[in-house]
């Protein structure tokens, strides 16, 4: 459904070139929840931003539902982007608008009727559990509630894909789990594919079916959670999982001990 093919991106700053992405390839199936993990500066945000061409790659292709995004005109791209929701670490809500009006924004931009907006926003607020907050302003909400508003807004145009950029990094562990549970529910109930980036293994373990590890702009490994965790060879991957292995579900721990796997996974099918 989403094919990221050999994407590279170099930024130029103060006469210096910096390769943020280097020949990254990744396939994401419809309905999957894929986590991209890596240290700060690894290139995760750049990768996620290239998926809806907020960053245009220098080379490579982004193919979503058979369409090559790198070849679309600005007008075509704007239409395709409506079907991709995005949520961010700091929620990006408009403080001068109520919860209702924040969620309504994409529908207003799309010239929906007042009735359509009312019905849709109420439906979305129900999905994220904020029916009683419609008239509140963001300043009176907790971090978790703000992220719920941002998720409702991201769902306004019935997206097929949700991109989450460190969506739980500003939240405490309990709120993080409740937001991840909401994302899981949305994935299961609405069939929306989710691509999320994080530097926390805990987030990956809670929701992701597949994982890609990125470091210094390169894709180090990709596979199922158990495949990635059982990779004992790569020091970068080990740094992520070392402190977490003991907290893995017992069943997975038992399997890993029975079926040790060595080496990296093939980077490109
Ligand atoms: P991550 O999300 O993994 O923390 P980013 O994708 O944000 O990493 O950044 C990767 C690298 O690219 C960093 O060194 C960052 O400074 C650089 N970078 C990202 N965006 C820009 C930009 N617009 N201009 C210059 N450098 C950038």
Automatic annotation (TrEMBL):
Keywords: Amino-acid transport, ATP-binding, Cell membrane, Hydrolase, Membrane, Nucleotide-binding, Translocase, Transport. One of its GO terms (biological process) is amino acid transport. GO terms for cellular component: plasma membrane. One of its GO terms (molecular function) is ATP binding. It comes from the Bacteria. Residues 2-241 form the ABC transporter domain. Belongs to the ABC transporter superfamily. Part of the ABC transporter FtsEX involved in cellular division. Important for assembly or stability of the septal ring. This is Cell division ATP-binding protein FtsE. It comes from Chryseobacterium jejuense.
């Amino acid at each position: 459904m989403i094919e990221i093919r050999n994407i590279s991106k170099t930024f130029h700053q103060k006469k210096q070139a910096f390769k943020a992405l280097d020949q990254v390839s990744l396939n994401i199936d419809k309905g999957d929840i894929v986590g991209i993990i890596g240290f700060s500066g690894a290139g995760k945000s750049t990768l996620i931003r290239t998926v809806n061409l907020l960053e245009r790659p220098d080379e490579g292709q982004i193919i979503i539902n058979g369409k090559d995004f790198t070849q679309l005109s600005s007008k075509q791209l704007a239409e395709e982007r409506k079907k991709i929701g995005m949520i961010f670490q700091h929620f990006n809500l408009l403080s001068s608008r109520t919860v209702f009006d924040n969620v309504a924004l994409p529908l207003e931009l799309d010239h929906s009727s007042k009735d359509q907006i009312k019905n849709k926003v109420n439906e979305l607020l129900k999905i994220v559990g904020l029916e009683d907050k419609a008239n509140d302003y963001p300043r009176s909400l907790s971090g978790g509630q703000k992220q719920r508003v941002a998720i409702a807004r991201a769902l306004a145009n019935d997206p097929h894909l949700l991109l989450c950029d460190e969506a739980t990094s500003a939240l405490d562990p309990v709120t993080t789990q409740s937001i991840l549970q909401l994302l899981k529910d949305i994935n299961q109930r609405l069939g929306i594919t989710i691509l999320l980036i994080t530097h926390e293994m805990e987030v990956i373990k809670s929701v992701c079916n597949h994982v890609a590890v990125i470091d210094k702009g390169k894709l180090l490994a990709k596979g199922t959670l158990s495949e990635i965790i059982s990779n004992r060879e790569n020091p970068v991957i080990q740094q992520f999982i070392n402190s977490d292995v003991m907290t893995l579900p017992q069943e997975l721990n038992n399997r890993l001990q029975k079926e040790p796997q060595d080496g990296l996974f093939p980077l490109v099918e």
